[in-house]
Amino acid sequence: MTDSATILKGRTGDWEIVLGLEVHAQVASKSKLFSGAAVGFGAGPNEQVSLVDAAMPGMLPVLNRFCVEQAVRTGLGLKAQINLKSTFDRKNYFYPDLPQGYQISQFKSPIVGEGLVNVDRDDGTSFSVRIERLHLEQDAGKSIHDLSPNETYVDLNRSGTALMEIVSMPDMRSPEDAAAYVKKLRAILITLGTCDGDMEKGNLRADVNVSVCRVGQYAKFRADGDFKHLGTRCEIKNVNSYRFIQQAINHEARRQIEILEDGGKIDQETRLYDPTKNETRSMRSKEEAHDYRYFPDPDLLPLVLDAAWVKEIEAGLPELPDAKKARLMSAYGLSAYDATVLTSDGDVAAYFEGAAKGRDAKLTANWVLNDLLGRLGKDGLEIKASPIPAADIAALVALIEDGTISGKIARTVFEHMWAGEGAPSAIVEKHGLVQITDTGAIEAAVDALIAANPDKAAAVKDKPQAIGWFVGQVMKETGGKANPAAVNEILKAKLGL
Amino acid sequence: MAIDAATVRKVARLARIAEPEERLEPLARELNGIIAWIEQLQEVDTDGVEPMTSAVAATLPLREDVVTDGGDSARVLANAPKTVDGFFVVPKVVE
User: Fold this and answer.
1) Residue A396 and residue A184: Cα distance in Å, rounded?
2) Least crowded by CB within 10 Å, which of A32, A177, B5, B34?
3) pTM for the complete prediction?
4) CB pair distance less than 8 Å for A49 and B70
5) ipTM score for this prediction
């Protein structure tokens, strides 16, 4: 574990950032946590609402078994303790999109206890984040403020949707680490299939707890676990992209340092991040509501899990990103970096493994990571929607390996593959892209070139790096199809280098 | 623990219950009476005793993840004082 705390310079000395995250992950269920109404995106207003979700009098919640199973799966994926007995509590507050007047959550006894997540940084180092708890809770409905100047419109479709709130310990020390943690968490959730991880649709949302302290204070906190060593934290809501997470943290840390250096004190409060202005502002309306008066929900008995069922769920877990990364490194000889990128998305890893069978793994990884992912990213496509199947990437790599085409020609072939022209061998044949390895043809081209440029041929003897010009000309003559290694060799011989 | 008029005012506000100023003192007295009674109950030694969560010996029923409800916004909106295009409409909530 490497500690790479961001140090912020202030007028009165250096400060460190301390970050903890609360991630809300929507359970990938068909129906809601406590009702049989559908969960989905894009339905008409209030079309996915049962009378339970609308909190009509006399309605009673009935817990969704699948949601419980997903919480357990996720807990196991986070190497966390599964609590065989957990309870549901009411978190009381008033807001128009919360018809019950309370959110059913798990306050006192959550379904999942302490766990641990290993996170890889882009530079190859890693760190771990302790998970404090994971609990099940209901989502609220949606308030729309801009449809009428004097009114708020309320859509309860999201009301009652199952969320897993995953609470971390304050173990992140830089905005980059916070974003990397969310990325890793997302990869685990997607691998487990417990949440689709779609941040744009709000199916994965992060609240960031930000505080600052003097250099050295955090080490004291880690030594004795006493929060008094740390600064007062503010919770930043509405940060739903990796970029916004980092921007919001940077802004909020600066704001807090300025207050402290002016001799002020930080109020513990909830703040809202506004990406258009890049600032956080206090959510005053929620100030008083912080007194949630939790109490056990009398409508719901304690949730008791059968230990055998938990074992069964554990036995059915897929290969998780950490294990997959280790396997890709040992089985394919990939670097830690390549293996990390490939396993950040289970579909990408599966695609790679589909293409790499029997091929040069490093070369295949380069084609998948650089060319294919780059191209997909440009067109905003997921790997599942790739117009090029894994078998075709394998065939392309095979053509490079056996010398039929060069890496350079392969890029041209790739463009044709992307355009939907089919298998690479057919493309090579159709467009006449076979690499010229026939030394006779290359020699002829070289001879003609030297004969036409005697001055350059003479000059190259004093300036050997000028051979590049000759290589370029031969490649041009042969339409880029000449084998670069053969061209170099023949040129060197003929030019007397 | 003693409850004063200020606490009653706060709790009433959090629960959105309008209590006139002159009712706060009497309510505080009543609530203190209830709390004194609870304190008496707390004299019983309950170490190692599981909290009783229900008077019936039942386990929490679970349902399968099947869509069985919804798709009837008219029914959901039937009692709303105002609706527009399938939305509930409420006085402006300022964020």
Assistant:
1) 31
2) B34
3) 0.82
4) yes
5) 0.90
